[in-house]
Write a structure and sequence with these properties.
Layout lengths: L12 E3 L2 E5 L5 H10 L12 H15 L8 E7 L2 E12 L4 E8 L1 H26 L4 E7 L3 H9 L3 E12 L2 E11 L4 E4 L5 H9 L1 H6 L8 H12 L5 E7 L2 E9 L6 E7 L8 H17 L3 E7 L3 H9 L3 E4 L4 E7 L1
Parallel strand pairs: 5-6, 12-13
Antiparallel strand pairs: 1-2, 2-3, 3-4, 4-5, 6-8, 7-8, 9-10, 10-11, 11-12, 13-15, 14-15
Bound molecules: coenzyme A.
The site of coenzyme A has 20 residues, from helix 6, strand 12, helix 8, strand 13 and helix 9.
């Protein structure tokens, strides 16, 4: 009989040929084998043996399915019904609605498809955490031994949230532990890429953006395309797309990084106006810039009638001077 988690309204989550299904007894020895092969990055000191694995599945795993508030929810990760990894939500905090994300894949596919399977697994487990369980936050807790994991997490909207210095002893060396987190309904950032061409054109063409833009008039698509392609390749620009649960909702861009005269551009998709997101977008975008570049002075030029943006700069403690009759200059040292 297939296992079912009482706490979940949906049991199987799929993405093409790949699925996560409540962890299956039949996969336990494969899982044990991968864990033993990958002990170097796991919180496991000794190789597991079959008897221990049997006990763990009979005594611990079997109790998770009927529990009202299980401390972990584990899945077999399958391709066309064959188990190729396992993972899930562990150290679940039902009060604060957060959990740690855990995942290991078949050691043989790690070398060739590490990033691909992490991406698919994250996409599936987010459905469990954010859609089914309505959690607020998921995070990873990783020994600083696999930096290639961090880029996958960041590309999937996680941000490095904390680093516990020299927190673990490995082969006589103290290693950091790095925590990456992702939140439900919170703005996340990723660097702009060519696939953002169309959405950025739609935003740039919207009447509210045109109304307060420094250059007025309709922008032809080809013109935007040339500008955009150059801009995402420009080392003097830090161009971020803001997303909520992977949906693009706006952008923030910092130009002129090389000459320390950094100007800010930012906008929200008109569908997301009036919810206080503009302030969060700019403030968190500035924090990201600070992390990249340290203390620099940033400037925003704002149309005098653009009350929402003026208010945001004021709330973020920018210093204001008149640039002209219609433009205000807001500056701040980060
Ligand atoms: C600027 C922008 C990102 C702000 O988006 P937003 O988050 O929806 O802004 P809000 O509507 O929440 O307004 C921000 C603040 O201004 C206040 N505000 C907005 N319009 C106002 C008005 N007409 N009178 C008084 N206050 C006003 C809001 O009440 C809010 O203040 P609060 O935080 O104290 O509640 C968005 O309007 C946008 O994308 N505009 C087009 C692009 C643009 O202008 N970019 C900035 C270029 S400098």
């Amino acid at each position: 009989m297939e296992n079912k988690y009482k706490v979940l309204s949906q049991q199987v989550f799929s993405n093409g040929d790949y699925s996560i299904v409540p962890i299956r007894m039949e996969d336990r020895y494969e899982i044990m084998k991968w864990r033993n092969e990958q002990m170097y990055h796991l919180r496991q000191n000794e190789p597991l043996i079959k008897e221990e694995q049997d006990n763990y599945f009979s005594n611990t795993i079997s109790n998770l399915f009927e529990a009202e508030t299980p401390n972990q929810i584990l899945f077999s990760y399958t391709k066309e019904n064959t188990c190729i990894g396992y993972g899930g939500l562990v150290h679940i905090n039902w009060v604060d609605k957060n959990a740690e994300l855990s995942f290991i894949m078949d050691t043989e596919i790690e070398g060739t498809s590490f990033e691909k399977h992490w991406c698919i697994f994250i996409n599936l487990i987010e459905k469990v955490a954010f859609l089914d369980l309505k959690f607020n936050k998921i995070f990873t807790y990783a020994f600083d031994l696999r930096p290639h994991l961090y880029s996958v997490l960041v590309r999937n909207g996680f941000e490095e949230e904390a680093r516990l210095k020299e927190h673990c002893l490995f082969d006589s060396i103290y290693r950091d532990v790095v925590i990456h987190a992702k939140y439900k309904n919170k703005i996340q950032f990723r660097v702009a890429e060519i696939d953002d061409l169309t959405v950025t054109y739609t935003w740039a063409s919207s009447p509210i953006v045109r109304e307060y833009a420094l250059s007025k008039g309709i922008i032809p698509f080809e013109e935007h395309k040339n500008w955009f392609v150059n801009k995402i390749a420009d080392n003097n620009a830090f161009f971020l797309i803001a997303t909520i649960e992977s949906t693009p909702i706006g952008l923030v861009r910092f130009d002129g990084l090389s000459h320390q005269q950094v100007t800010i551009s930012y906008l929200l998709d008109p569908g997301y106006h009036g919810k206080g997101l503009g302030k969060q977008l700019l403030s968190r975008g500035l924090s990201k810039l600070y992390r990249e570049r340290g203390n620099i002075t940033v400037t925003g030029l704002v149309h005098i009638n653009n009350i929402a943006s003026r208010r945001i700069f004021e709330q973020l403690c920018f210093h204001q001077i008149h640039e002209s009759e219609v433009l205000l200059r807001f500056t701040k040292q980060l």
